[in-house]
């Protein structure tokens, strides 16, 4: 169940941040600017995530930047989704095992 939830969470977040937000931004600004903006928007809500606080936001910003770059380079949501699924799976499975 933890893996299914990790897959659903990573897919939903990738559809929002890379699918809905990154595409239109790429038509308005440079790729680096669009990737940076969506990575920042991705990092902010993760303040209360795992890991939490500013370190969590920073790590999530970096991950979001990598996911955005993967989206731009491949022109597909599949690689960013997989790259996002892996850490989500670790967090979700670890959390499930602790409970």
What do you see in this structure?
- The relative contact order is 0.18.
- Helix content is 82%, strand content 0%.
- The protein is an all-alpha fold and 99 residues long.
- The mean pLDDT is 96.
- The protein has one domain.
- Tell me how many strands there are: 0
Number of helices: 4
- Structural class call reads mainly alpha
Order of helices and strands: HHHH
Helix content: over 70%
- Backbone shape: globular
What is the CA–CA distance across the termini? 13 Å
**Which radius of gyration do the C-alpha atoms yield?**
13 Å
Q: How much strand? A: under 5%
Secondary structure elements and pairings:
Layout: H1 2-26, H2 31-43, H3 53-74, H4 78-98
Helix pairs in contact: 1-2, 1-4, 2-3, 3-4
Please name the defining characteristics of this protein.
99 residues; mainly alpha; 82% helix; globular
Concise account of the structure shown:
This protein is 82% helix and 0% strand. With 99 residues, it is mostly helical.
């Amino acid at each position: 169940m933890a893996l299914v939830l990790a897959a659903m969470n990573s897919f939903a977040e990738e559809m929002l941040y890379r699918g809905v937000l990154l595409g239109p931004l790429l038509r308005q600004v440079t790729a680096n600017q669009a990737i940076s903006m969506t990575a920042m928007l991705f990092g902010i809500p993760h303040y209360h995530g795992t890991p939490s606080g500013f370190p969590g936001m920073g790590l999530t910003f970096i991950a979001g930047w990598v996911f955005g770059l993967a989206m731009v380079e491949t022109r597909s949501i599949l690689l960013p989704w997989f790259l996002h699924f892996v850490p989500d799976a670790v967090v979700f499975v670890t959390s499930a095992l602790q409970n």
